[in-house]
Amino acid sequence: MPKVGMGPVRRKQLVDATISSIHTYGLADTTVTRIARSAGVSPGIVHHYFTDKDDLLFESMRQMLRSLKIEVLKRLKNSNTKAERLNAIIEASFSPEQFSPEVTSAWLALYASSRHSPGLFRILQLYHRRLRSNLLDALGGNNPQNLDKAEAIAALIDGLYLRAALNLDDSDMQQLQQLACKMSAKLAGN
Amino acid sequence: MPKVGMGPVRRKQLVDATISSIHTYGLADTTVTRIARSAGVSPGIVHHYFTDKDDLLFESMRQMLRSLKIEVLKRLKNSNTKAERLNAIIEASFSPEQFSPEVTSAWLALYASSRHSPGLFRILQLYHRRLRSNLLDALGGNNPQNLDKAEAIAALIDGLYLRAALNLDDSDMQQLQQLACKMSAKLAGN
Amino acid sequence: MPKVGMGPVRRKQLVDATISSIHTYGLADTTVTRIARSAGVSPGIVHHYFTDKDDLLFESMRQMLRSLKIEVLKRLKNSNTKAERLNAIIEASFSPEQFSPEVTSAWLALYASSRHSPGLFRILQLYHRRLRSNLLDALGGNNPQNLDKAEAIAALIDGLYLRAALNLDDSDMQQLQQLACKMSAKLAGN
Amino acid sequence: MPKVGMGPVRRKQLVDATISSIHTYGLADTTVTRIARSAGVSPGIVHHYFTDKDDLLFESMRQMLRSLKIEVLKRLKNSNTKAERLNAIIEASFSPEQFSPEVTSAWLALYASSRHSPGLFRILQLYHRRLRSNLLDALGGNNPQNLDKAEAIAALIDGLYLRAALNLDDSDMQQLQQLACKMSAKLAGN
DNA sequence: AATGAATGAGCCTTCATTCAT
DNA sequence: TATGAATGAAGGCTCATTCAT
Predict the structure, then answer these.
(1) Domain extents for chain D?
(2) Which of A68, A150, C177, C183 is the most buried (most CB within 10 A)?
(3) Is it the case that residue A155 has pLDDT exceeding 90?
(4) Residues 11-50 of chain D: which lie with beta carbon within 7 Å of strand F?
(5) C57 phi and psi angles, rounded to 5 deg
(6) Would you state the pLDDT for residue D12?
(7) CATH of C57-188, one of 1.10.10.10, 1.10.10.60, 3.10.100.10, 1.10.357.10
(8) What is the model's pTM?
(9) Mean of the per-residue pLDDT values for chain A?
């Protein structure tokens, strides 16, 4: 049953299975075999498409960040005022795609493990830089005061996301999004 | 070299070694043997004082939360105004004891793994409830508006903590503490 | 050197290696690693074919009992008189296949450990029921007197087997078989 | 609370705890710590009174065989006819002291493990020799025919004992004793 | 392209034994 | 005499990775 041109398809399958497995079993119990089974393929195939397990985890985080980036850009394109740009950034983070239980679980797990994984660390830094840059832009430029605000808003977003990942308050996306926007506006103000 | 009455001492040693090991090697590479060696004891002794590895991880988290609780209570005792009480809570979280690289690393790692560890999940919920309760109190009572504020401030604290854990901006405790206080005040205001 | 369709072959190899290892080292010193090495495979593969060590031990006992059952049925098929049927049962127990040093050693060891192993206990009960049933049939029906006789003959068989397993008298199969038949005939008579 | 002259007492305590532990947990799960706890002493004390664990197991078997020997001698002393002597031997094996669940369990477990334990092997050979000698005596002397009979009766005793150890037929001591006597008489006859 | 058998390193855990007290 | 803290060697088991097919 070998097929040609399966590369991209298999890669996506495996990345999705990885995210899903992290959500279901936790990162510690996410084994290559389990991922493969969940993707409906054999364990061996994983190393055909990915260098090793770390590479697969890395690509999973990358897919999530790529997806977030697209979401942000899409919304920024339609934003004209500062306030709109700020909301665009926040709403992107809490959009359905970025905020499914699977994605938040995987995000938290990989985020936490990034300290000891150079690859993950690197792309998460990129994400943070981009987020800060976007926020500074939405706040009206890079100055000490705005740096503080950007830092706080970024922390607010991550914090809300983080707490949602633990399902600590059975969080409703819609509601959380509104809270994030409202509070960010406060932080952005004087 | 067996000695009597070493129980509490050994337990503390092992918990500290665990926190330190998580920081140095990451949770995934924190093995019982490594913890024991780091504590200067043999691998076998770990199971003399803890049921199993999970128990040791649990107790490590517990020690951190207990320490935080003490810090908060100590500061709340000397706080009279609402603003002081709010600051007390925040400053406790960013006090030297709670905010060493070792502790933040361990906190993040265990926080992330709590979704699939009933014990960790439970005590983290307790922490969150207590934090919310303290914040509501500092904000002047439990009402819908304050609930939102408390949620946001809690997220801000966790978010700043989280980002510091990744050392993303080589954060300076002092500075972060001030930022947290300032921004929380904004969130608390109208 | 992975090959396809090796399942049944490997399972048989491992079961035989288990029986042999129990004979050579004793059940207490029969480790998974030792079994694997004796079968010429790696330790890890054992858990590819068996749930765990207990499962492997269970399957080893099962193979011995299955083999005995086949031997008994084969001989009963050619038996017409009561006396012949009684001899058939006994001779099967002391046939070369059932009575090698390896098999008797393993049989004794697993028999003894069955008290604390539900799986082993179950299949040994099946064996005992079948033996009793066969004996009652050979004795001419289920009545109190025959029950006593069956019990005694079964005990005689087990006892002789047991003592042979300890090699207490450097027992010769042929001779033992004859003794068992002769004495069983006595027990069967009035 | 060190006391002098505790030697014999402690040794008996530990041997009894060993037998009891084998019955309750099985030989494989009978650990030194468990034995000690069951005897109400500390794990370390075991090696004060016994060379090592094997020594303790050996002494446990020895106590059981010693007890059996005493029981046999006591009954033989009052036996005058051949038939009485035969019954004396059998009844001793199934007397309350020898036939408690604890003792039968321990007996079976140690019996089975004796193949790979020189010490156990030795004293069990002694037991077998004594049993054979007693039986030959009761049968009227050492000749080929009586050797066969003695062998069969010994096997019958061990077999019945063995099956009782597994509790395969919820055996009642009284009844089993009678069965053993009746069937032995058959085997002893011509 | 795909399978899954096979490896082997390493982890958690247990436990007989020793030893300071 | 007695404790129980401590060691260290093994054992069962898991799992990322490789490789013949």
Answers:
(1) 52-188
(2) C183
(3) yes
(4) 41-45, 48
(5) -65, -45
(6) 96
(7) 1.10.357.10
(8) 0.91
(9) 91
